[in-house]
Amino acid sequence: MARRVINKKRHLGLQQLSAFADTGRTFLGPVKSSKFIIDEESHESVVVSSTVRLLESLDLSSAVGQLLGEAVQAQHSAYRTGASTLLFLVGAWSRAVEECLHLGVPVSVIVSGMSEGLDSCIEEVASLHVPLHDVFDRIDGTQVFSELESLNASLCPFLQVPSDTGSIPKERDLQDAASQALTTSSLSGRPVKSAKPSGPQATVDADKNTSQTPRTLRNSLLADSCCRQSVVTHSRHCSREARAERTSKHGAAAPQPCRCSDLGELAVGLSHGDHGSMRLVEGAVRLQHQSTRVCQGSRTVPFTFDISRVFTRCLPGLPETFSCVCSGYVTVVSMFSAAVLEDLQNQPLRVVLIEGDLTERYRHLGFNKPANVQTVLGSMRKLHQDSSEELWANSVLQVLIKFNVNLVLVQGAVSEHIIGKCVHAKRLAIGSVSGRVMQAFAEASGAVQVSYITQVREDSVGSGVSMTSWRSRPLDVGDGISRMAILLKTEGINLVTVVLTGPVTAQMQTKEDRFWTCAYRLHYALKEQKVFLGGGAVEFLCLSHLQILREQPPKKGDRIRSGGLHNTSSGLASPLALYRPTVLKCLADGWHKYLSTVACNTANHSSEFEARTFIQHHLQNAIDSGSPSSYILNEYSKLNRGVFNSGISNKLEQIPGVYDLVTPKIEAWRRALGLVLLVLQTDSEIIAGPGRTQIKSQESEGFLFL
C-alpha cells in the first residue's frame, strides 16, 4: 500500500480510508494502469488491474479496512461494476470531511448536509437519463460493434476540447475526423470490417491493447453523440417556464428528446474503452437472441439477456485472436479421454446428467456406514476396496450400455476408474460441470437430472447432443498437462460459452474480470431500460448543481429535526444554514477530483491542476447558462449536428455515444458517502465520546445524531 503519514491527533479512520483509496486511483476511467502488489514477508508479487483484486491483495485486517472491503464487495457482488468509483469517492469525501472538521463544522451538520446534498444531486441527474427503446426489434439490421467502436469516445466531448478553444470545431475538421474513423480502427489501426452474421460458433477478435492517438481520440470525441439531443423535463430550482426564459436569454437552443434504440451503439457506449471484451459480450447477446428465437418459433415473446446462461472458459497459451463466442458448452478433457472424440463427433449422442459425484464412495447425507465392522489387515482392506470399486465401475458401465448412453455430465467429481472404463467402451464422462450448464442441457435434450447412476431410466436419458473439437491441436492450460478443448451442443440450447485466450497465463484472470464487467454493464442497462449520459456528464452536472445550491441564500430559520429540514419561527439561522455552503463545497470537491483524475488518467491533461482549471472553466459556463443540464445536452447536440452537416458518408446514420449505468452508479455514490459518514461518527465518538459530538449551543437541541 502507498506510504502515507497518519496524524494520530486527527480522525484516524478518515485518514486510513484516504490511504486505502489512494492505491486505486489508477483504476479510474477507461484507461487503467495495472499494479504490482508485493508481499513484504514472502516477497511474492501479483499483478492486479481492478479495485476488487487490489483489495483482495491488501491487508484489510483493521476495522476501517474491513468496512471498506465489505462496501466494495457488496457493490461488486450486486453489480460487478462501480467499485473503482466507490473507492475513489471514499478517499475524496474522506478528505472533504477532514477539511470540514478543520474548518470547525460540527459532525451533525456534516452528516445532514452531505446526505441531503447527495440526495439532491441524485434527483437532478435524472435529467440525463437516456431511455432504451426496442434495441432487439431490429437486432439483425443494426450495426455491429466493429462498425462503431472506432467512433466511440470515453469522456464528455466538451471536457476534452482545450480550454482556449471554446468554439465548435470547423466542418472541415469534423469531416477529417469522421473520414479517419471510417477508414481506420482507432484500436488496432486496421480497416474496420463488418462482422459476419452470428453462427453456431461466432468468432470475434480479441482485444488489441493499442491505444488511440491523442488527435484520433479527440476527434472521435468531437464526433460523439452520447445524447442524441435530450430534453430537460425536471429541475428542483425553477419551473419549465423559468428555464425556457433563461435558455432564451442565454441564446441556447432547446435540446431534442434523447433515446438509444441500437444494440451496437449501446454496447460501444458501455464498453468504456474495453472494446475487445464488449465485442465478445455483444456476440453472446446476439447468439442468445438467435437461439431464443429458434426455440420460440412463431411466438412473439420479448427477449431478455439472460446472463446466467453465459459462461467463460479461459485457455491460456493461445493467441488472443482465438477468443470467440460459441453456442454450447466448451470444456477441456485429458488427451486420454479425447481419444474417443473421433468415434463420437459425427453422431447424435445420448446423455445422462448426474447432480452429485460419480464415485463409488459417494452417498447421500443420511447414509450410515455398517456398524461393528473392523478391518484386521491393511492389505486385505486395500484388496477389498479395489474389488469393491471394480464391481461398482462394472455396474455403472452396464447401466450406460443398457441405455446406450455415450456421454455422462457430472456436476461433481468423477472417479478416474470410471473415466478409464468409459474411454475403453467408447464413452465419455466429464466432471465439474456447472449446475446451470446441466440445466441448459436438460431443457434442450430432454434429459432428467439424477443423483445416482442407479436412478437412470429410459425417460431420464437425453438425446441429440453433438460433440466436436474446439481446436484440433492439444492445449497446455498452464500446468504442463496437454488437454483437448471440445464443444458440446444440441439444437435449441440456451447456452453460450465465451472462450478467452491469451499468451500470458497471469493475465487470464484480468481478462475474465473485464469480460464480466462489460457483460453486467450491458445486462443492467437492458434490465433497467435506461442509461445515463456518460463520460463524466453526470458528475459534471452534480458539480454544477452543488455550486448553484451553495449560491442560494439560506432560508431564514432553517433547522434540523429528525434528520430533515423545516422552517421555524426562530430568527437565528441554524448551524446547517451557516455551514451549508462549506459542506456542499466539500461534497462537490469529491466530484471535482473525480473528473480531474479521469482526465489525467486518459492523458488528456498533463497535470491535475490543468485538468481542474479546465473543468472549472466549463463549470462557470454551465452555471452562467442558467441550466447546467441544458448546457451539457446542448454541447453534445452541437457537436453531433456538426458531423451530420459535414456531408460525410451516409453510412454514419448514428455515431455511438458514451453511457453509464443508472442504479449501480447511484449505489456506488450512496455506499461511498455512507461509509465515510459512518467512520466519521465512529471516530468522533472515540475521540470525544458520544455526548461531545453534539453541538454545544442553543441551536443544538434540534440536531439528531445519526
Automatic annotation (TrEMBL):
Q: Name one Pfam family in it.
A: Cpn60_TCP1
Q: GO molecular function, one example?
A: ATP binding
Q: Which domain of life is it from?
A: Eukaryota
Q: Which InterPro entries match?
A: BBS12, Cpn60/GroEL/TCP-1, GroEL-like_apical_dom_sf, GROEL-like_equatorial_sf, TCP-1-like_intermed_sf
Residue ranges for the region (Disordered) are: 167-215
Renumbered to this chain, the Low complexity biased-composition regions fall at 177-188
Q: What is this protein called?
A: Bardet-Biedl syndrome 12
Q: Name one GO cellular component term.
A: chaperonin-containing T-complex
Q: What is any one GO biological process for this UniProt entry?
A: photoreceptor cell maintenance
